[in-house]
Amino acid sequence: MNQEQGHDNQGFSHDGFKLAMTGFDPTMPGHQQPEHQENMIFRQEPRTARTEGSGISLPYETRLEMGLQLDEHLCALNVALHQYTKHHWLTEGAESFGSLHHILDEHVKKTQDHIDSVGERVARLGVVPTAHPETQHKISYIKHEVEGRYTMRDFLRNDLEHELKIQGMMRKTIKRAHDLNDFGTVETLEEVLLDREDFGYHIWSLLEDDTLVRGMEHLLDGQGDIADQRHLNDNLPQ
Fold first, then answer.
1. Geometric angle at alpha carbon 50, from 115 and 46, rounded to 5°
2. Would the CA dihedral through 173, 174, 175, 180 be positive or negative?
3. Interacting residues of 94 by C-beta distance below 8 A, sequence separation 6+
4. What is Dmax (Cα atoms) for the chain?
5. Could you say which of 32, 60, 138, 159 is the most buried, measured as most Cβ atoms within 10 Å of its Cβ?
């Protein structure tokens, strides 16, 4: 790690965030430079803050901490985007291929907007946003489901668990940003959080008990097919 740009993070409120992950890490995917890029002009290590400032009147320590937390949200949003895109492609069934296909498309497009908004804020704080897909997945506090096709209900449950986790982690950053007087980050995340809560509400409503397309099997198998069939975890392990 570049000692001038890095930070030991002592005193930082970790609160579930990977604040110690700054600078180059030879074991991290995306941190090894290929031979054809060896002559590029290097300016700043990943997940570090500019020591000379960024035009925003916040202390270096605040810009670094907020930038690192926002970068984790950026990584998580990219994981959510990939999973939503897959589910959008694989929608099937009478109640899914039409309306659900469009709902997931809306989630994809708004998530792209959220990624841009959060990434712009990371850059404005003088921090290098994480952009390599493998590195994003490594840093993200949510993880993509295992490859393959599953039921639409399983797809949506996985999406809902992601939304609950994203909401909880964003609230932590909003609270911390208030404490540090970083009101620009507060405004950025509050706008994103409101949309993520809408996403969670959309999916929860889709998974609710009542439906017009259960068929006779639902009445005869005794399984119930109800929304609380599987516990929804909003505190997924890191």
1. 55
2. positive
3. 213
4. 69
5. 159
Tokens of 168: 């909880």
Residue bearing tokens 């069939």:
229
Q: What is the pTM of this model?
A: 0.80
Q: Is 32 left (phi over 0), alpha (psi -120 to 50) or beta?
A: beta
Helix intervals (H) in the chain:
60-89, 101-124, 133-139, 152-179, 183-206, 216-220
| Residue showing tokens 């991290």 | 28
Side chain identity at 133, as an amino acid letter? Answer: P
Cβ neighbours of residue 81 closer than 8 Å, sequence gap 6 or more: 108, 111, 112, 115
Full set of structural domains in the chain with CATH: 57-209 (1.20.1260.10)
* Mean pLDDT, residues 212-237: 58
Kindly report the backbone phi and psi dihedral angles of residue 127, in degrees, each rounded to the nearest multiple of 5, phi listed first.
-105, 145
Q: What backbone phi and psi angles, to 5 degrees, belong to 185?
A: -65, -40
Coil vs helix vs strand at 24: coil
List the single range of 39-48, 73-82, 190-199, 222-231 with lowest mean pLDDT.
222-231
CA–CA distance, 122 with 76 (Å, rounded to integer): 14
Q: Is-contact 192 118, C-beta < 8 A?
A: yes
Closest by alpha carbon to 197, among 227, 165, 157, 174? 165
Task: Give the pLDDT band (50/70/90) at residue 233.
Answer: low
